[in-house]
Amino acid sequence: MTIEEAIIYGKKYLHTSMVKMLISRVTGIDTLDQLNNLNYVFKDNEEKAFKDLIEAVKNNKPVQYVLGSVNFYGLELKVNENVLIPRFETEELVENTIKLINSKFKDKKLSILDLCTGSGAIGLRLKKEYPNNDITLSDISAKALMVAQDNSDTLCLEAKIINSDLFDKINDKYDVIISNPPYIRDDEEIEDIVRDNEPHIALFAGKEGLDFYERILKNIKNYLNEEFIIAFEIGADQKSAVSKLAYENLDNIEIYSKQDMSGKDRMLFIVNKSS
């Protein structure tokens, strides 16, 4: 099998861009160079590996898990079935948080907590943006934190790792607390590929999908410095409910929401009112 034949074979089942990523994974030939190497003949083990990867994706396994990695806002992150696959909406959360940090804190050295970190995507991207800031990655899942630690080491982005059920083992205060917690209702219909592959502990959050926001906001004031930013990714219909929880648990705050690129309310920012 040549690369040209592999592309034709794979296109019967997957988008061409996915096929090229799988070819790159087994041959080491970059997707951009494959057109210049269409006559490259797969070694026997490469052909078998390629067809096995195609079969896994055909059987409803996310291509990110098949490849073992995903690009998140310029970082190549390792992912597996123990962590959520980072999505575009979370990239937008990070982008808008960076803008807010730059506006509110200027060049101040910050302490940042990424709560429910999973693969470490959010916190490590903020460490990349602010290499002098202190970043803490926290999650209840020890298996998820193994992925986060691996990403931290591989990317040479130093972060403190804490295995904690939300704030249970958190002892410090932070300028920024950012989180993409579970927020899907227990009875909510989601795509089969998500339900069947991604960790439910990182997806579902009770009858209304608000359990984690309630728990976080009930305790968060004990872990905030005087000047602070709280940044949440939220479900598209949760802006009012999460805002209400914030006002019930925090004093002298301002709340901003942002829509994602599809026009859905997906980001909520809570900051202290300036004196």
Rg to the nearest angstrom? 21 Å
E-strand count:
9
Largest sheet composition? 7 strands, mixed
Low-confidence stretches: none
CATH third-level topology of the largest domain: Rossmann fold
- Residue share in β-strands: 15-25%
Short description:
The protein contains ten helices and nine strands.
Search tags:
single chain; 275 residues; alpha/beta; Rossmann fold; 2 domains; seven-stranded mixed beta sheet; two-stranded antiparallel sheet; 10 helices; 9 strands; elongated
Commentary on this structure:
With 275 residues, this protein is an alpha/beta fold. It folds into 2 domains: 3-59; 81-272, Rossmann fold (3-Layer(aba) Sandwich), CATH 3.40.50.150. It is 38% helix and 20% strand. It has 10 helices and 9 strands. It has helices at 3-10, 16-27, 44-58, 63-67, 88-105, 121-129, 142-155, 192-195, 211-219, 239-249, and strands at residues 69-72, 75-78, 111-115, 134-139, 160-163, 174-179, 224-233, 253-259, 265-272. The strands form 2 sheets. A 7-stranded mixed β-sheet has the order 5-4-3-6-7-9-8, sandwiched between helices. Strands 1-2 form a two-stranded antiparallel sheet. Strand 3, helix 6 and strand 4 (134-139) form a beta-alpha-beta unit. The longest helix has 18 residues, at 88-105. The model has no long low-confidence stretch (mean pLDDT 90).
Write the layout of secondary structure elements.
Elements: H1 3-10, H2 16-27, H3 44-58, H4 63-67, E1 69-72, E2 75-78, H5 88-105, E3 111-115, H6 121-129, E4 134-139, H7 142-155, E5 160-163, E6 174-179, H8 192-195, H9 211-219, E7 224-233, H10 239-249, E8 253-259, E9 265-272
Parallel strand pairs: 3-4, 3-6, 4-5, 6-7
Antiparallel strand pairs: 1-2, 7-9, 8-9
Helix pairs in contact: 1-2, 2-3, 5-6, 9-10
